[in-house]
Amino acid sequence: MQIGAHVRDAEDPLAEAAEVGADVVQIFLSDPQGWKKPPPHPRAAELAASDVGVVVHAPYLANVASANNKIRIPSRKIVQQHAAGAKEVGAFGLVVHGGHVTRDEDPAVGIDNWRKFVERQSGEGGFDVPILLENTAGGDNAVARRFDMLGRLWDAIGEFDVGFCLDTCHAFCSGEELTDVVDRAKAITGRIDLVHLNNSRDEFDSARDRHANIDSGTIEPEVLAAVVAAAGAPVVVETPAEGQAQDIRYLRENAS
């Protein structure tokens, strides 16, 4: 089982991975709050050749579900661009948030927009790396927040080999119990390709997304370890940097 971290040092992620004892790293290829095409990574060849697993996270602004053309069309483009960049660094996937529609819009529109995107791309040869759709924490009209909506989304896109990234903080804060979350997620998606293993600074069903280190949040550490053991997938902690090494050690010792 690969256990690692989201690293902040975009210039030399492998050095930071070594510092925290990570054997998988998650990186951004550009400003996570921007729309610009990612530039070539200065260590692309080194990352691709490394024994350290690599996964890329798409910018937070990407919202493939949006009914607004001025958001949806750039979102499709930036996902495609980051998938191409992810291939260059040897990544095994690109994490993309499920997105949302606005308060007065039907979430079915967002689900249909996801289907149109992945269906069209599938017809054009697929993405450069697998898309790993991530569950999210808040928003009543989010298409991947609560698992009932996730089920509707997967009914629409599952046939196109989209992967799934399970975020524990997001699930907890969206009101999904973690004791059986892996079984319920797999019943919907048939797979878990990556776990974002994060504790939460906030209470259950808070709809807030504030990560905490494993030993300092509102989720019991042993519950988080059990999620990792059950998922059997690569794990990335997106926790505060000063505690990442300890988080990784804890999971290696308790999630077998």
TrEMBL record:
Organism of origin = Pseudonocardia endophytica
Q: Which keywords does this Swiss-Prot/TrEMBL entry list?
A: DNA damage, DNA repair, Hydrolase, Metal-binding, Zinc
Xylose isomerase-like TIM barrel domain: residues covered:
14-253
Q: Which SMART domains match?
A: AP2Ec
NCBIfam families found in the cross-reference section: PRK01060.1-3
What PROSITE patterns does the entry give? Answer: AP_NUCLEASE_F2_2, AP_NUCLEASE_F2_4
Gene3D superfamilies according to UniProt: Divalent-metal-dependent TIM barrel enzymes
Q: What is this protein called?
A: Deoxyribonuclease-4
**Required cofactors, per record?**
Zn(2+)
* Family membership noted in the UniProt record: Belongs to the AP endonuclease 2 family.
Question: Which GO molecular function annotation, any one, does this entry have?
Answer: DNA binding
